[in-house]
Fold these 2 entries.
Entry 1:
Amino acid sequence: MQNLITNIPLLPADRPANAPPAFHMLVKPTGATCNLDCAYCFFLAKELLYPGSRFRMADELLENYLRQLVEAHESPEVVIAWQGGEPTLMGLPFFRRSIDYAKRYLRPGQRLVNTIQTNGTLLDDEWAVFFKENEFLVGISIDGPRAMHDTYRTDKGGAPTFDRVMRGLSFLQKHGVEWNALVTLNHSNAEHPLEVYRFLRDECKARFIQFIPIVERLHENGVPFGTAITDRSISAQQYGQFLIEVFEEWVRHDIASVYVQMFDVALANWYGEPSGLCVFSKTCGTALAMEHNGDVYSCDHFVEPAFKLGNIHESHLIELVASDQQVKFGRDKFDTLPRYCRECDVRFACHGACPKDRFINTSDGEPGLNYLCEGYKMFFHHIRPAMEMMVQLLRMNRAPSEVMAMYAARDRQWQERLARTGRNDPCPCGSGKKFKVCHGRKQNTGAVQ
Ligand code: SF4
Ligand code: SF4
């Protein structure tokens, strides 16, 4: 339905039957344009989709989008999510206008939640004051301590960016802006879980942490080349081990003080609540992406012609979100699961994870298994006892953080047992080896896992 004079799509009189009350739309006002040139960035290749474009969202589109976004929501919260490329390249006035426009259309009882994902390098006092005033949640991309961060996160001249990111972060901290760390796990940092986690927790004072595994497929003439991945990618085994080691630290010291998205989501699934994250939900389809020119795609990971739903200059956002194509996209997450996943004992926690990474075969040759499956299985099996304890506590109206005391008691008992074991005795861990070549070795007397 269009306004006959301006030709702008209007909210359809009848809301589509299957329209969700709320959804998440990642918007890239600069398209793939960025001031950095991170080696693994998949957005840069998307520039090829829009040859000749200036990659800047026009003001008229900005207002049109925000009107449609607010109109499309039936929930009290309307999330405005900016991403890139590097969205701060649009300049602060663009974001000031975004707030003004969105507020014009809010209905009574609705409120805005503003989020932005940035590499942090262009932030200063003025940005931080603006974020604070408008209660932005700012995602900062940082891959760990200097050497790990600078391996792949470089600028266009190949120069390191660690200092510029830390400087940007310091403005957010100075002004008390809420922020979360977005950490890609790749070949450089995958083998250093504790170093990465402790750096974020202790030096950056991060309280919200999100880990994103880098799985980059090799392409030949634009088409994925079998199941081959780049050297920068993380292996499934590395991913599982990384999460396990961070979990072992977190479960002893940081429950309720540091929020690691993966652990929160796992607890929700164990508890039987919606996890809130598409990757670990049965179906997806409510996390879409919009390009700088109004083109809407099924998901940020599927900004490709086959997954384009339309353009908000021509159709109202709610019609695209509720379109048959998008509903099918979301349902396919479950409908295309291989039998191996359907019969998996941790499917309730994993749900086959993200379809973008489902490109390997199961052991009996069925296609569509997630490349990271081995890591997910390791991790979900490993955390099962702790998750079950936390769920029990929650059901008794007690805090899951009580698990930390249980772990501390268990660790004490373990250390006492080790202290009583002779060098040539069998190791108490049950490995069948002598103590002196197992947990009796100096470097191996840590907590039982
Ligand atoms: S394809 Fe993956 S990232 Fe995209 S909405 Fe589905 S689960 Fe989420
Ligand atoms: S752990 Fe592996 S088999 Fe199980 S649901 Fe996840 S991807 Fe499928």
Entry 2:
Amino acid sequence: MRREASRRVRELGSIDKARTLTRHAFAALRRGDLSPPGRGKKGRDTPYIAEMRPQDILMSVAAGLCCKPGGFHIDPIRPVERAVITHGHSDHARPGHGAVLATQETLDMMRLRYGDNFAGSTQAIGYGEELKLGDVRIKFHPAGHVLGSAQIAVSCKDTCIVASGDYKDAPDPTCAPFEVVPCDVFITEATFGLPVFRHGDAADEIKKLLASVALFPERAHLVGAYSLGKAQRVIALLRAAGYDAPIYLHGAMEKITRYYERRGVALGELRLVKGMKKADLAGTITLAPPSATSDIWTRRFPDPVTAFASGWMRVRARARQRGVELPLVISDHADWDGLTATIDATGAGEVWVTHGQEDALVHWCTAKGLAARPLDLVGYGEEDEGETVPLAEDAEA
Ligand SMILES: [Zn+2]
Ligand SMILES: [Zn+2]
């Protein structure tokens, strides 16, 4: 009887430890790849606490990518308590979170788009800065996608996972260049994850645009480009090609473009289209959100040549469908060669593939002997499909 009681006391004393053990062990057991708890008492049962599996550090849930040991989500699509955000595009940076951790630029862009109360609280973090959150450490690295865009390295004990968000390895004068971050698990996007996607040199596409402007001095050139990132990159590329005439902007792009200038990105002389006489727009270049290039807004231009700057312009059917006369293959996402070269360079043994054409990239990884799987994340990629412009701004611009 007494022996029974003392056994119970011993059990109670270790209950907390047992609970943690069981929780991890259950998850592992469900995956069917660990031996039952309690086995191998001679020091062999510690590893599954000491060595966390990548899936225990980051997992995809309905709200997005969840880091349980760190108590946060990355780019959540639903309001959460703590969000860590890779970049300012609306499919990644959504309003309504309790707290947001991001680069200063991403926070500013969210403020510009959603207003001052876009989150309960905010904290800025710089590239290369490390922060401890719960049981993990996180560090931001440039993603080369748009101004302020970051890859987020999440480390727990000896395991490092890099969530790269959207990225490109091609040069872009408007943001910090992509940095290869060595890791165990690399989470890659796959927007252009098919071997047919090879973007080529953006400067050559700009030459095409300038050749068209020279060829049709009596027509206006209207270039569809996403307001955040692509528009500013096209302007910077035009300047780099020696084009120094004023460049015109649709009103919906003004705020974000001025913000780029405030952050030190030189864009030359910019003017708003609003208030311009039709005849005066002959021979000029105007940047507008993609949706505006196909509506009545275009009537204010003399016989406009419609161009569109996007990686999707590699697909002729897409250009035709949109009524694009001058497709410009300029993308802020890595192409097939960029994706595969980056995966190689990270040295990751495991790759998780998300938002886009996952299958081909998963297959490529598997053939190279890497563990790879698609991540079932939904709700991303809309930014590149068709940007919505607030009606009022559209009418005004
Ligand atoms: Zn993006
Ligand atoms: Zn994206």
